[in-house]
Amino acid sequence: MVKNSQSFQLKKIIKQSIISVIVGTLMLLLSIGTTIGMTRVADEELETTTFLNQYRLASKALTYAVQTYAATGSAEYYNDYMKELNEDKNRDIAWAGLEKNNLKRSEWALLNQIADLSNGLVPLEEKALELAQTGNTIEAMSYVFGKDYQKTTQEINTLTDDAIHQIQTRINKSKKSLRIFQIIVELFYVSSFLYLILQIKKIVSFSEKELLEPIIKVSGQMSLLSEGHFHTDLTLEEDESEVGRMAGAISLMKTNIVGMIREISSILEQMGDGNYCFEMHQNYVGEFGQIKESFITISAKMRETLNTIREVSQQIDCGSEQLACAAVDLAEGSTEQAGKVSDLVTLMENMYKSMARSAKEAISTVELSTHAGEVLVTGNTKMQELKEAISEISKCSEEIDEIIRTIESIASETNLLSLNASIEAARAGEAGKGFAIVANQVKKLADESAKAAGETNKLIERTVQAVERGIIIADETAENMGEVMKGAREATEKMELTSQNLESDVQNMQRINENIVRVSEIVDNNSATSQETAAVSEEQKAQVESMVGLVEKFNI
Prior knowledge:
Elements: H1 6-72, H2 75-88, H3 90-100, H4 105-133, H5 137-144, H6 147-226, H7 242-272, H8 289-302, H9 309-428, H10 433-552
C-alpha cells in the first residue's frame, strides 16, 4: 500500500485514534482503581485507629473499675469490671478487628507488647479484687495504686500512642504514593483524550480535503464526460494516491478518446468521399481496439466488389455483437460503481452517527463533572463542620481542665482537713485513735486523688495538643479542597467547550453526508444511462441481423 494514498492515511489516523481510546480507557480504569485503593487505605487507617482506641478505652475501663472497687469495696464497680471482662469483651473485639487488617510485623510487635503488659496487670487486679471482697481495701489499693501498676498502665498508653503513630505514618505514606500515581494516571488520561480530539479533527479535515473535495471534482468531470465534453481541464493533479491515480486515468482516457474521435471523424469524412485507402495511427486501448479492427475490416471489405457484401454484413453483425457486449460490460461497471458509492454513503452515515454519540457522551461527561463539583462543595462544607467540631472539643477539654483544677483544690483541702483531724485525734488521746485511723485513710485518699488529677491533667494537655494539630490539618485540608474545586470548575468549562466543538463537527459531518448522497444519486443516474445504452446496443444488433437477412436475398 502506497504511503501517500488516502486509504493508507485514513487507516493510519483511525489506528492512532483506536490506540488513543484504548490508552484513555486503561488510564481511566487505573484512576478508578487508585481511588478505590485510597478509599480502602483510609478506611483501614480509621478502622485500625478505632480498634486501638477501643482496646485502650476497654483497658482503662477495667483499670478504673478495679481501682474504684479496691478503694470503695462497692459491688457496683466489681460488677462493671466483670461485665467488661466477661460480657462486653471490648478488648477481645478490638484485637479480633486488628487481626483482620494488614498490619506489619513491627506493628504487631508493639501490639503484642501491649497485650503482654495488659496480661501482666491481671494478677494484680485479681489480687486486689480478692482483698476488696474480704474488706481489706487498704491492701487492695496497694496493688492497683502501686508504682508497678501505675508504671505499667502508663507504658501501655505510651506504646498504644506509638502503635497508632506508626500505623498512621505507614498508611499516610501509602496514600501519598497512591495519590502521586493517580495524578500521573490522570495526566496520561487527559493527554490521551486531547490526542483523541486531535485525531477526530484530523479525520474531519482529511475527509473534507482529501476525500470529499476530490470526489466532488471527479463527479463534476465525469458528468461533463457523460455529456460529451472532453476538452475541459481537470483541476486534480496526478500522484500516487487513489484520487491522483483516478485523475491520471481520467486525463489519459480524455486524451485517448479525443484522439480516437478526431481520427474516426477524419476517416468517416474520407469514407463519405469514397476513399477507403486510409491508415489509423491512434492507439486504441482496451475495448476500443475493436473499433480499430472494425474500421480496418470495413476498409478491406468495401474495396471488394458486391460479391463480398454478404461477408461484410456478417462482419458487421459480429462487430455489433461485440459492441453490445461492451455496452453490457459498461453498464455492469457503472452498477458496481454505484454500489461502491452507496457503501461510501453508508460509511459516512456511520461516521456521522458515531460522532453524534461522541457528542452525547461529551455532554454526559460535562454533567458528571458538574455533579463531581457539587460533591466537592458538599465535602468542603463537611470539612468546615469538622473544623467547628474539633474547636468545640478543644473548648470542652479546657472546661475539663478547670474541673481537674477544682478536684486538685478539693484534694488539697481534704489533705489539710486530714492533718487537722490527726492533730485533734492526738489531743484526744486514747479516745481519738479510731478517728486518727480514719484521718490517715482520708489523707491517703486525698494524695491519690491529687495524683490521679495530675495524671488526668497531663492526658488532657496531650488531648488539647492533638486537637490543635487536628485543627491545623483540617485548615490545610479545607484549603486543598478549595484548590481541587477550582480545578474541577476549570475542567468542567473545558469539557463544555469540547462538547460544543463536537456538536459543530457533527453538523459538518451531516453536510458532508448530504453531499455524498448527492454524488450517489449522480452515479445511479450514470448507471441507468449505461443500462439504456446496453439496451440500445441490443436493438442495433437486431437491426444488423435484419440487414444480414436482407443481404442474404441478393444472388450474386
